[in-house]
Amino acid sequence: MAFSTFNFIGRFKIDEMDFLWEVPEYSYSLDEEGICKHAFELIFAFDEVISLGHKESVTVTQVKQYCEMESQEEKLHKLVMQSKINETKDVMKRKASEIDKSKIEKNRGDKGGFGPLTSMGSGKIENSFNDMSISSTGTGFGSGTGFGLSTDVDSFSTKPKGRPTASATAPPKGLGMKLGKSQKNQFLESLKAEGEVIVEDVQPRVSQSRTAAPPLTDPVTLTVEEKLNVTLKRDGGVSNFDVQGTLSLQILNQEDGYIQVQVQTGDNQAISFKTHPNMNKELFANEHILGPKDPNRPFPTGQASDAAGVGLLKWRMQSTDESMVPLTINCWPSSSGNETYVSIEYEASSMFDLQNVVVSVPLPPLREAPSVKQIDGEWRYDSRNSILEWSVLLIDDSNRSGSMEFVVPQADSSAFFPISVRFIATDTFSDLKVTNIIPVKGGNPPKYAQRTQLITENYQIV
User: Could you give the subunit structure recorded for this chain (predicted)?
Assistant: First the structure.
């Protein structure tokens, strides 16, 4: 290649010293290996020096400038894009500031204030007066002016306290740029066109996940929850297996607080239960009944929005037995040529039916998404964090095992660890169940509901 390059130049009958002054700028070594390594750069440079067989009157600086081919339009485009990004960030900051102000007004209203009327934020006073029922009755300052401030007091009683109205939360007219829907979509589309992976708004997903659980409408609700912390070895074996469970009580009305809770525990001897210090320990040990030490003292009450409730009982289980693990993951990376084939399989225990299973596999930095050859379920590639998510909606007796195979460029086997897993189940290791609600002062027991779930807090294969 090097000699062919020199022969190409020599055909134009130009003295050797006329163009060799340019070669060291692109190749420090003038041997065949150095010339071959920078052949294309040299050809482009010679093309700027020679025109139709004649030498051009150019300098080394000019040749380098011509070869770099800097585009003023490209620089201008980048400046415009950066300006749009900065402008959008400023608008988002202003929006966040307005949301914070509305939250402060709402908190003041919940404490007995008048909501937006107590705030002196920009544009809030004018909007707040617009929310009041103002009528021109001819009194006050006269009907001719239209400022007869006869406020309808009933309008305050019909509105929730501290809840900002639509006019109060809207930004005042003429203050700054508005972030319209078309502007936001245009900005996102421009980023997508440049190859950036855009994650859509996360807030609606959070609200959906919160509303997935039914609201607390029963007078008494008892929640059995176990959190699972598991660390498995990639070659087999258990490094850590820890289950922590709680039984919580939530009562909506104070008159339903004079009760006792009777429970039934499973046959798992590895679990040790501990009652709340205010519970009657002897009553629980002898009859499996949870009640206050003082029968005349009711359980605390809470609103339906309080998710925690009152803790009555807690337990813990630790083990090194791999058969207790509800889900095991086997990962087999193998390299072939310039590619790495990764086979992953799961095996689920028959003890539980698992829901919303997601296996997150870290990947080395990739230019493109991995090539998934086979999968039992669905997959999604998170390019920003370089993670491949394998999801299975439900694992039951019909699919206790499953597999996935994908291909990536050659990488070390340790690049695919640690693997994280998350899922939920409606069964627990303790198999704790509420069997009865006993009213302390007699009468009919209140209606109650029971919720049971097993969730993963930290589940990894390292």
Answer: Oligomeric complex that consists of at least the alpha, beta, beta', gamma, delta, epsilon and zeta subunits.
Omega within 30 of 0 (cis) for the link into 24: no
For the chain, give the number of residues. Answer: 462
Cα 130 from Cα 74, distance rounded (Å): 50
Average pLDDT score over residue span 415-443: 93
Positive or negative CA dihedral for 211, 213, 217, 219?
A: negative
Q: Give the SS3 label for residue 172.
A: coil
Given the structure tokens 């027991």, which residue do they identify? 445
Using one digit for the tens of pLDDT, what is the confidence trace for 391-427? 999 999 999 999 999 999 999 999 999 999 999 999 9
The 3-class SS string of 427-451 reads: CCCCCCEEEEEEECCCCCCCCEEEE
Residue 59 has pLDDT above 70, yes or no: yes
CA 49 to CA 46: how far, in whole Å? 5
Write out the H or E segment, with its range, that includes residue 207: helix 203-212
Q: Which phi-psi region, left, alpha or beta, contains residue 24 (left: φ > 0; alpha: ψ -120 to 50)? A: alpha
Q: State yes or no: pLDDT of 210 exceeds 50.
A: no
d(CA 197, CA 386): 11
Strand partners, 315: 245, 273
| d(C-alpha 134, C-alpha 151), whole Å | 5
Q: Which residue has the higher pLDDT, 198 or 421?
A: 421
Looking at residue 61, its amino acid is T
